What we know:
56% helix, single chain, 3 helices
Amino acid sequence: MKKEHVLGLVVICLVIVALSISGLASDVVTRLGLDLDGLLLIMVSLLMAGLFLLMLFVIAKDQGWLPGGKKESAAAAAPGAKAAPAPAAARPAAPKTQSSEAVSVPPGQAK
Protein backbone atom coordinates (compact mmCIF):
# COMPACT_ATOMS: atom_id res chain seq x y z
CA MET A 1 0.00 0.00 0.00
CA LYS A 2 1.26 3.50 -0.78
CA LYS A 3 2.68 5.56 2.04
CA GLU A 4 0.16 8.38 1.46
CA HIS A 5 -2.76 5.98 1.82
CA VAL A 6 -1.35 4.50 5.02
CA LEU A 7 -0.77 7.90 6.57
CA GLY A 8 -4.34 8.90 5.70
CA LEU A 9 -5.68 5.79 7.46
CA VAL A 10 -3.50 6.47 10.50
CA VAL A 11 -4.77 10.06 10.72
CA ILE A 12 -8.40 8.92 10.50
CA CYS A 13 -7.84 6.31 13.22
CA LEU A 14 -6.13 8.84 15.49
CA VAL A 15 -8.97 11.36 15.02
CA ILE A 16 -11.60 8.75 15.96
CA VAL A 17 -9.57 7.67 19.01
CA ALA A 18 -9.21 11.33 20.09
CA LEU A 19 -12.97 11.86 19.71
CA SER A 20 -13.64 8.73 21.76
CA ILE A 21 -11.36 9.94 24.53
CA SER A 22 -13.12 13.31 24.47
CA GLY A 23 -16.43 11.44 24.81
CA LEU A 24 -15.12 9.71 27.93
CA ALA A 25 -13.91 13.06 29.28
CA SER A 26 -17.28 14.69 28.61
CA ASP A 27 -18.95 11.93 30.60
CA VAL A 28 -16.86 12.89 33.61
CA VAL A 29 -17.15 16.66 33.09
CA THR A 30 -20.95 16.67 32.68
CA ARG A 31 -21.32 14.29 35.64
CA LEU A 32 -23.47 11.83 33.74
CA GLY A 33 -21.95 9.14 35.92
CA LEU A 34 -23.46 5.69 35.82
CA ASP A 35 -26.99 6.48 34.72
CA LEU A 36 -28.21 5.15 31.37
CA ASP A 37 -26.90 8.04 29.26
CA GLY A 38 -23.52 7.93 30.95
CA LEU A 39 -23.17 4.18 30.54
CA LEU A 40 -24.11 4.35 26.85
CA LEU A 41 -21.61 7.15 26.25
CA ILE A 42 -18.88 5.23 28.06
CA MET A 43 -19.57 1.98 26.20
CA VAL A 44 -19.76 3.60 22.74
CA SER A 45 -16.59 5.60 23.39
CA LEU A 46 -14.70 2.50 24.57
CA LEU A 47 -15.97 0.47 21.61
CA MET A 48 -14.91 3.05 19.05
CA ALA A 49 -11.53 3.65 20.69
CA GLY A 50 -10.89 -0.10 20.92
CA LEU A 51 -11.78 -0.82 17.30
CA PHE A 52 -9.69 2.00 15.90
CA LEU A 53 -6.74 1.25 18.20
CA LEU A 54 -6.89 -2.33 16.94
CA MET A 55 -6.86 -1.04 13.37
CA LEU A 56 -3.86 1.16 14.18
CA PHE A 57 -2.07 -1.89 15.59
CA VAL A 58 -2.80 -3.91 12.44
CA ILE A 59 -1.57 -1.08 10.19
CA ALA A 60 1.61 -0.62 12.25
CA LYS A 61 2.37 -4.34 12.20
CA ASP A 62 1.70 -4.57 8.46
CA GLN A 63 3.97 -1.61 7.71
CA GLY A 64 6.78 -3.04 9.82
CA TRP A 65 6.66 -0.27 12.44
CA LEU A 66 6.33 -2.96 15.13
CA PRO A 67 8.58 -6.01 15.48
CA GLY A 68 7.12 -9.11 13.89
CA GLY A 69 5.56 -7.41 10.87
CA LYS A 70 6.25 -8.35 7.23
CA LYS A 71 7.62 -11.81 8.07
CA GLU A 72 7.35 -13.23 4.56
CA SER A 73 9.36 -10.44 2.92
CA ALA A 74 12.05 -10.60 5.61
CA ALA A 75 12.39 -14.36 5.16
CA ALA A 76 12.70 -13.99 1.38
CA ALA A 77 15.36 -11.28 1.68
CA ALA A 78 17.52 -13.21 4.17
CA PRO A 79 20.63 -14.57 2.43
CA GLY A 80 21.27 -18.29 2.71
CA ALA A 81 17.73 -19.08 3.80
CA LYS A 82 16.51 -22.47 2.63
CA ALA A 83 13.33 -22.53 0.62
CA ALA A 84 10.62 -24.73 2.04
CA PRO A 85 10.04 -27.88 0.00
CA ALA A 86 6.96 -27.82 -2.16
CA PRO A 87 4.13 -30.09 -1.02
CA ALA A 88 3.60 -33.24 -3.03
CA ALA A 89 1.15 -32.82 -5.88
CA ALA A 90 -2.07 -34.75 -5.54
CA ARG A 91 -2.67 -37.43 -8.12
CA PRO A 92 -5.61 -36.70 -10.37
CA ALA A 93 -8.55 -39.01 -9.87
CA ALA A 94 -9.15 -41.61 -12.54
CA PRO A 95 -11.98 -40.57 -14.85
CA LYS A 96 -15.16 -42.53 -14.39
CA THR A 97 -16.38 -44.37 -17.44
CA GLN A 98 -20.01 -44.21 -18.30
CA SER A 99 -21.80 -46.96 -20.10
CA SER A 100 -23.33 -45.95 -23.39
CA GLU A 101 -26.21 -48.42 -22.89
CA ALA A 102 -29.47 -47.10 -21.55
CA VAL A 103 -30.50 -49.01 -18.46
CA SER A 104 -34.15 -49.27 -17.65
CA VAL A 105 -35.10 -50.81 -14.33
CA PRO A 106 -38.76 -50.93 -13.33
CA PRO A 107 -39.51 -49.49 -9.89
CA GLY A 108 -39.08 -51.97 -7.08
CA GLN A 109 -36.68 -54.21 -9.01
CA ALA A 110 -33.39 -52.53 -8.26
CA LYS A 111 -30.30 -54.72 -8.27
